[in-house]
Amino acid sequence: MRKTGLKGAALISAFLLSACQTTHVAETSKAHIKEVINSSEATLVDVRIPEQYAEGTAKNAINIPLSTIQNNLESLKGKKVVVFCNKGVQADQAVEILKKNGVEVYDGTSWKNVKAIQDEASNK
What we know:
single chain, alpha/beta
C-alpha cells in the first residue's frame, strides 16, 4: 500500500507542476501577443492551405502550410514568428514543430484573431 501512496503522490506532483507551467506559458503569451503581432520585426505565418489563405488572411502574412513548415525552418530561424490558422489547431501543431527546432514562435490562434489585433492597433 505504501508504494501506491508514493506513486500517487508523485503523479499528483507531476500533474500540479505541469499545470502550473502550462498556465504560466499561456499568461505570458496572451500578455505579449498583441505587442508581437504589431511589431515590425514579427513574421506572420498563416499555416492553412493556399486556397484558404487566398480567401483572406492577416495583413502582411505569408503562407507556409503546416504540411511544409518542416521544410521552411531555416527561413524562420532568427525571427519572431507568429503562426495562425482558422481555429488554432494547426497553429498549435506548428508552434510545437517550430519550438522543437529553435524558432522563436508565438501562437496567434486564428487569422481573424490576428487581423482583429492589427485592426485594433490601427484604430488607435
